[in-house]
Specification:
It is globular, with a radius of gyration of 14 Å. Helix 2 runs antiparallel to helix 3, helix 3 runs antiparallel to helix 4 and helix 4 packs antiparallel against helix 5. The chain contains five helices and no strands. The protein is about 50% helix and about 0% strand. It has one domain.
């Protein structure tokens, strides 16, 4: 993602977990994206994805968010959330789902 004011790219691995202080709209962090997935546990298309997201959250909790294992978990999450769309069962909007995917794709690089 790019900051609207300073036009800087948030490309550094460390910056993925923070937001640019110039942004007017807050960018979803990786932790928030994973928590959003776990929050939607009633969605059938996220069954396997939830387990991977919970484990990735544990890795963040233990300070291992810059390891290859964490990136692998993010790839598992991404591959298992391909069919996640806005649903009547959830209050999550399509824009939040799209932002969640974008944040996790950036974190997996």
């Amino acid at each position: 993602m790019e900051c609207q004011k300073c036009k800087s790219q948030l490309a550094c691995e460390r910056d993925i977990f923070k937001t640019c202080h110039y942004l007017e709209d807050k960018i979803m962090t990786v932790t928030e994206a994973l928590q959003l997935i776990v929050k939607n546990s009633s969605i059938a298309s996220l069954n396997c994805c939830i387990c991977y997201a919970e484990f990735a959250l544990q890795l963040i909790f233990y300070g291992e968010k810059h390891t290859q294992g964490f990136k692998t978990q993010i790839l598992y999450v991404l591959s298992n959330m391909t069919h996640w769309k806005q649903s009547k069962l959830s209050t999550t909007t399509a824009a939040e789902i799209k932002e969640c995917r974008a944040v996790l794709k950036k974190a997996s690089v």
